[in-house]
Amino acid sequence: MKKLNIVLIALLGLTAVSAQADVANAEKLVSIYSAIAKNANPNYTGPSAADGKVFFNRKIKLGNGKDMACASCHTANPANEGKHVVTGKAIRPLSPVVNAKRFEDFEKVQDKFTQHCVDIIGSDCTAAEKASYITYLLTEKTPTAKK
Ligand code: HEC
């Protein structure tokens, strides 16, 4: 993952990023991850919200036999508040459209992303998966009405 970090930082160096979190930052991240994906695979055709949605809801069997998806904690609607399956703690919505605090700090996002992918999938997600995933988050703008 060192290599990815270096590429990412190099790209970040070229793109002045405002400290302000929000949709623009998330979009910037999509273009960075897309650039990395394109670099890794010249046939890469760009991020897809549909792929991101599948990725988000895909259930993966963990070592303990339990099925877990990103949606397990973040809920099937990333515009909703999530709930940690283990600790029961509330998690603020992941969608940057709803929660301007998301994707504020690129380093933090990168670390969390890698950490969650390793926890759930067993290895880091690819740049293409990350680009699609954030693209998908950007399409989720409306929280589901609370029951
Ligand atoms: C076991 C519960 C759990 C699962 C499963 C989970 N997450 Fe998370 N996620 C969290 C918690 C807790 C936070 C941090 C809460 C916060 O920052 O408000 C978080 C934060 C994040 C963030 C940070 C966003 C930011 O701007 O800080 C990203 C990105 C993320 N998760 C992606 C994923 C992805 C991708 C998956 C599936 C591969 C996933 N998560 C699965 C619990 C989970």
Compact summary:
This protein is mainly alpha-helical and 147 residues long. The protein has six helices and four strands, in the order H-H-H-E-E-H-E-E-H-H. The chain is globular, with a radius of gyration of 15 Å.
> Radius of gyration, Cα only, in angstroms?
15 Å
Number of domains: 1
Query: CATH superfamily assignment?
Result: Cytochrome c-like domain
Low-pLDDT windows of residues = 13-21
> What are the bound molecules?
heme C
Which class in CATH terms?
Mainly Alpha
Structural class: mainly alpha
Shape designation: globular
Strand content: 5-15%
Named CATH architecture: Orthogonal Bundle
User: Considering DSSP H and I runs of 4 or more, what fraction of the residues is helical?
Assistant: 40-55%
What name is given to the CATH topology?
Cytochrome Bc1 Complex, Chain D, domain 2
Work out the number of β strands: 4
